[in-house]
Amino acid sequence: MCNHTIQEICPTCWSIVLLSVPDFIFKMKTKKRVAIVGAGAAGMACAWSLSLNPDLFEVTVFEALESAGGVASTTVTADGRDRINDQVQGGAPSYRNNLLFFKQAADADPTDVRFKIAFGRGETAWSNHGPPSPLVERCSEDIKQFGRLLERVHRHEWYYVFVPIHKLLERQGFSQEFMDSMVFPLVALFFGTGNQTPYVSAAVISRVFLDPELRLFEYDDSRLLSTVPTMFAFPPLGDIFAKITDTIKAKGEVNRVLTSAPVVKVERRRNGVSVFSPALEGGMEEFDDIVFACGAEQTLKILGDDASWRER
C-alpha cells in the first residue's frame, strides 16, 4: 500500500515524475544529508526537488560564484539604467521542462518573442529577416536540398546518429560556403560547440529542425531559418534563482545554498562522502550523498585520485 509520493526531476531530461513510496520505506529511512556541487539550473532543480521532501532530505548547495544561476546570470548595464540576462537570454518552446521548473519553483513566466538573427558580414552576411542576402541567393539550391536531407536523416536516425554533419554534407555535394557560412554558425550559436561543430551528429541537427519535442529552429526552404520562429525571453534570471534559493531554504531550516563556496576536494567513505570547502566551518563536512551539477572537468578535478576508471 503506497500512501506517499516523492516529486523528482529526471537528471537527463528534467521531466518531473512522481514516485510512489511504500510506508515501510518511510519508517526505515533516516533523513539523508545531500551535497550538490553547482548552483546552475541543474543543481538548483535537484536541490528544489529534494527540498519538497523535508522529512527525507537535507540539502546543501555549493556554488563557486557569487550568486546562484551558473551561466544563467543577470547584470546591470554600464550606465546603471537596465538589468539584462548576460549569458542565457531565452530559448525555444521545446525547453518545456526548464519552463515548468521556473514556474513551479519561482512562479516565473517567460515573454514570447519573434526571433530575429543575423550572421556574418559582407559577402558572408545572412539573416532570417529583411531581403535575402547575396549569400542566401547563392546557396538557394543548397538550402532546398538541405531540407530534403533533414527529412531523410529524420526517417533513418538510427544510422545517421553516428555520422558527423560535415561528413554527410560533403558526401551529398553541399558547397563549402553553405556549410561554413550558414549551417555551422547556426549550430554553433545554439549548441556552443565552437570548433567541434562540424562533428555534431547529423541526427541531432535533424532533430533540432524537425522533432516536435526538441525543435529549436523552424526550417525555411528559401532562407534556411524561418522568418518568425516563436521563441521566448526569460525575466531577470538573477531574480528567478534568488527566489528558488529562498524556496529551498524555506522548505527546511537546515537547507543551505552557499555561494562563493568552491568545493576543492571530495573523499568517499563507507557510508557517504567528505566534502572540503573553505566556506565550511572547519573546512569539511560529511554527507550521505553527493550530486555533481558542474562541468565534467571540474568534477574530475574535485574527485582527484578518488575518481574511478568509469568516471574518468
Over all CA atoms, what is the radius of gyration? 23 Å
Which class do the helix and strand fractions yield? alpha+beta
Largest sheet descriptor = 4 strands, parallel
Number of helices: 11
Unreliable stretches covering 5 or more consecutive residues? 1-6, 11-18
Average pLDDT for all residues: 87
Order of helices and strands: EEHEHEEEEHEEEHHHHHHEEEHEEEEEH
What would your notes on this structure say?
By secondary structure, the chain is of the alpha+beta class. It is built from 11 helices and 18 strands. The strands form 7 sheets. It has a 4-stranded parallel beta sheet with strand order 14-4-3-18. A 3-stranded antiparallel beta sheet has the order 7-13-8, with no helix packed on it. It is elongated, with a radius of gyration of 23 Å. The two termini are 42 Å apart.
Any descriptors?
312 residues, alpha+beta, three-stranded antiparallel β-sheet, 18 strands, disordered N terminus
Could you outline the blueprint of secondary structure elements for this entry?
Elements: E1 2-9, E2 16-22, H1 23-28, E3 32-37, H2 41-51, E4 57-62, E5 74-76, E6 83-85, E7 90-91, H3 96-106, E8 111-114, E9 118-119, E10 126-127, H4 134-138, H5 140-155, H6 157-160, H7 165-171, H8 176-191, H9 202-210, E11 219-220, E12 224-225, E13 230-233, H10 237-251, E14 256-258, E15 265-269, E16 272-276, E17 284-287, E18 289-292, H11 296-303
